Amino acid sequence: MTAPAAADTPAPSSAPEPPSGGFSTDWLSLREPLDLEARPVALVHRLASRLPTGRPLTIVDLGCGTGSNLRALAPALDARQTWHVIDNDPVLLSDLAHRTRPWAEGRGLVQRWENADETVLSLDGEEDHFRYRIVLEVQDLAETVSSLDISGRDLVTSAALMDLVSREWVKTLVDRIVAAGALAYFALTYNGEMRWTPVDPMDDEILSLFNRHQHGDKGFGPALGPDAPQVMADLFTAAGYRVTTEPSDWDAAPDARGFQRTMARGIAAAAAELAPPEKQPRVSQWLDRRLQAIEDGHSRLRVGHVDLLAHP
């Protein structure tokens, strides 16, 4: 999901993302608690039950950002794991290492660089029951999806990515996953639904403009936007995979003011790009009312997302 934000405002990903396609660490920090809370536990358990047992797992995480998907999924997969985390932003990959250290230490693990050039993190425990190797890879996935190394991988995963890419890009990825016989778990894909409380008379119009904006090119060709969950399900089903989906909605309570402010500004900026000139003042007025409700502690925001599991 995308929406540009004001220049001084961190812009969201899978619900608002800046027009340049980059994501700020501030925004990723704001949304990580909501991402974690939104995860459908039953579907994650189903994923774990479908993965091979009795040996280490190899996982590819696409568009990994600062590593929230790894930190959410890894503890649920009861095996030693090697994660190939891929992003086109080396700054985010560097921050991943910093954010993973307290997460690891909280689980009794010791984090160290496994090689001299700081591309492989090793997280080791005394009993070596949970041991994660994290291989940091800088790649532009818009260019490399057709040559992505999936052979021998057990799982391909991502979070808040698939609504930003084109149908052709997803088709290429699905074909490669199926050819490798890997599982796929795509989390937090925007589905076009959004509900603010209290309701504003402009909400539906703003949402319609925003969802249109989501189909713009985010660097991967015309984006799927809210159509992504259904397109993914159809492509995997046509390829002979079994598909299960569960809702993974963000639910931002009144005390999540920073998150809600960033969302409101990004959504308004996206809507303003597509609104006719005569409606520009109404978009600004909607934003003013939303920001006031947020500051007053009266605002709640629910954003619809879908998690998808596909397996042979």
Query: How is the CATH topology of the domain at 25-192 and 220-253 and 302-311 named?
Result: Rossmann fold
Overall 3D form: globular
Average pLDDT, rounded to a whole number, is 91
Instruction: Return residue spans where pLDDT drops below 50 for at least 5 consecutive residues.
Output: 2-22
Summarize the structure in words.
It is a single chain. By secondary structure, the chain is α/β, with parallel strands linked by helices. The protein has a domain at 25-192 and 220-253 and 302-311: 3-Layer(aba) Sandwich (Rossmann fold), CATH 3.40.50. It contains ten helices and ten strands. Strands 1, 2, 3, 4, 5, 6, 7, 8, 9 and 10 form a ten-stranded mixed sheet that branches. It is globular and about 60 Å long. Residues 2-22 have low confidence and may be disordered.
